Amino acid sequence: MGIFSNIFSRKEKKEVLDAGLEKTKTTFFGKLTRAIAGKSKVDDEVLDQLEEILITSDVGTDTTIDIIQRIEQRVARDKYVSTSELHTILKEEIGNLLTQSGNEDTEGFDIPEGHKPYVIMVVGVNGVGKTTTIGKLAYQFKKAGLKVVLGAADTFRAAAVEQLVIWGERVGVPVIKQQMGSDPASVAYDTVNSAKAQGADVVIIDTAGRLHNKVGLMNELTKIKKVMQKVVPTAPDEILLVLDGSTGQNAYEQAKQFIKATDVTSLAITKLDGTAKGGVVIGISHQLKVPVKYIGLGEKMTDLQPFNRTEFVNSLFEGSNI
Question: In what order do the strands lie in the sheet with 266-270?
Answer without folding.
Answer: 175-176, 148-152, 202-206, 118-123, 238-244, 266-270, 292-296, 304-306
